[in-house]
């Protein structure tokens, strides 16, 4: 009887301890949520100040009638700026250039950056990989204007490449590598390659080399290893890095300005011209809203394509 009472007492204590432990777990989760919110608060405030607030100004400003030099939202509710966008072939060409050249730059950056990241990921020495990562970071840290001046010296009509081609007798007239769409794409690739490499390097280094060695021992070639093992492993990072490169290319202003000389219209350049050159804030806001909507569509497409990789 005494043993039965003791057993009953223990069971009751366990039943009573379930709500207590559950409430303690809920309290612990609540504390963790508050701590996470406190850690994210500076970032949230920064995004609110630099992204949300400007967007709240730009979006209604795009629906006001143009009034040069006026940066005041008048709530006109007019579509005249978007009608101008649709009516002028210049802006349709600029939108097509922005999207097409950004896609071309993304694909070419992927072709250049993935092999480089793959070779860096295979380096075993910690000292060597640190030095190589510092070199990639150094390439990204150098001022973009200085880097593009180097591209001008390299790709110009009297640049290094054309001088070598003429000196070797391969092409007497040289190649048109600048002031066209090719020059813009090459400049964007040069600008974005470090982002692609750094985005892929971490995922490639986490891939166990034993898996690749096992596949090779079973007769898989390099193409099979890349297609069946490496690419599925980095698929999510690959799409994320491509999205980053596409976004940087879409919003790039300095690259088309320096390497195309205004001969290749792009939305970012026309946006800068309308606001800083003409003072038409309303039409510039419409162009900015068009860029923003395009970026949102690309992000949505990326989320749709990477849903299986995230799962």
Task: Please provide a written account of the structure.
The protein is mostly helical. Helix content is 79%, strand content 0%. The chain contains 14 helices and no strands. Helix 4 packs antiparallel against helix 7. The relative contact order is 0.11.
C-alpha geometry: flat
CATH superfamily: MetI-like
- Tally the helices: 14
Please give the domain count. Answer: 1
The portion of residues forming beta strands comes to: under 5%
Distance between the termini: 55 Å
- Please give the share of residues in helix: over 70%
Strand-and-helix sequence, N→C? HHHHHHHHHHHHHH
| Largest sheet data | none
| CATH architectural type | Orthogonal Bundle
**What ranges have pLDDT less than 50 throughout 5 or more consecutive residues?**
1-18
Level-1 CATH class name: Mainly Alpha
- Determine Rg (CA atoms, Å): 28 Å
CATH fold field value:
MetI-like fold
Question: Which features characterize this protein?
Answer:
single chain; 311 residues; mainly alpha; MetI-like fold; 14 helices; disordered N terminus
């Amino acid at each position: 009887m005494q043993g039965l009472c003791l057993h009953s007492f223990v069971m009751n204590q366990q039943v009573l301890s379930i709500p207590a432990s559950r409430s303690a777990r809920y309290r612990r989760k609540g504390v963790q949520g508050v701590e996470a919110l406190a850690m994210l608060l500076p970032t949230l405030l920064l995004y609110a100040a630099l992204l949300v607030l400007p967007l709240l100004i730009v979006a209604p400003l795009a629906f006001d009638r143009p009034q040069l030099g006026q940066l005041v939202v008048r709530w006109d509710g007019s579509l005249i700026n978007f009608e101008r966008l649709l009516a002028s072939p210049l802006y349709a060409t600029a939108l097509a250039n922005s999207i097409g050249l950004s896609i071309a730059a993304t694909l070419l950056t992927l072709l250049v950056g993935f092999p480089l990241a793959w070779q860096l990921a295979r380096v075993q020495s910690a000292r060597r990989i640190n030095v190589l990562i510092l070199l990639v970071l150094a390439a990204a840290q150098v001022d973009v204007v200085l880097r593009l001046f180097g591209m001008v010296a390299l790709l110009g009509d009297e640049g290094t490449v054309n001088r070598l081609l003429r000196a070797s007798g391969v092409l007497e007239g040289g190649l048109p590598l600048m002031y066209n769409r090719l020059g813009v794409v090459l400049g964007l690739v040069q600008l974005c390659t470090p982002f692609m490499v750094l985005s892929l390097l971490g995922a490639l280094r986490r891939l166990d080399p034993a898996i690749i060695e096992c596949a090779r021992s079973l007769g898989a070639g390099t193409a099979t290893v890349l297609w069946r093992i490496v690419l599925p492993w980095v698929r999510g990072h690959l799409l994320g890095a491509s999205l980053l490169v596409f976004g940087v290319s879409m919003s790039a202003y300095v690259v088309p300005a320096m390497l195309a000389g205004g001969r290749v219209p792009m939305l970012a350049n026309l946006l800068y011209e309308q606001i800083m050159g003409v003072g038409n804030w309303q039409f510039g806001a419409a162009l900015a809203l068009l860029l923003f909507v395009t970026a949102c569509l690309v992000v949505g497409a990326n989320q749709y394509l990477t849903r299986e990789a995230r799962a």
